[in-house]
Design a protein that fits this description.
By secondary structure, the protein is mainly α. The protein has helices spanning about 1-5, 20-25, 30-60, 60-75, 85-100, 105-120. Helix 4 (about 60-75) runs antiparallel to helix 5 (about 85-100) and helix 5 runs antiparallel to helix 6 (about 105-120).
């Protein structure tokens, strides 16, 4: 038993990435399906961004938490290591949980929304996996 207690703990965290490899692998490199999902992610983000912005401006913390969780789910097809998923989980959900309030954080959330917005717009086209131009 002592031997197992002294073995190093493996770091099984997924490295951060900003590509569509996870989604391509998930869909068997079906480029049309990948592009459809990326398009849907972009459409859903526009809708969720507006709702999240409203929740932040009205101080509706419960709605903000709900939306951040849903947005994280929207980005989940990209993989848990994708920068978008991690930003929402770490800079969105975790920040809100730590702070527990929305007041006095308007600048933070404005920067957060703009950052995510830029990353969503830059999601690559599956055919070449380079950032798409908007």
């Amino acid at each position: 038993m002592l031997a197992t207690m002294t073995e190093p703990i493996l770091d099984d965290t997924e490295p951060e990435y900003n590509n569509l490899d996870y989604l391509k692998e998930l869909l068997g490199d079906d480029i049309d399906a990948v592009n459809d999902i990326v398009t849907e992610i972009k459409v859903q983000w526009k809708e969720d961004r507006q709702r999240l912005e409203q929740a932040f401006s009205k101080g509706e913390i419960t709605e903000a938490r709900r939306l951040l969780h849903r947005i994280k789910s929207t980005f989940s097809p990209l993989g848990a290591g994708h920068v978008l998923y991690r930003v929402v989980a770490n800079d969105g959900e975790a920040f809100l949980k730590k702070r527990g309030i929305l007041s006095d954080d308007q600048d933070y959330w404005h920067t957060f929304l703009n950052s995510v917005d830029g990353m969503v717009q830059d999601l690559p086209n599956a055919a070449d996996d380079t950032p798409a131009s908007s």
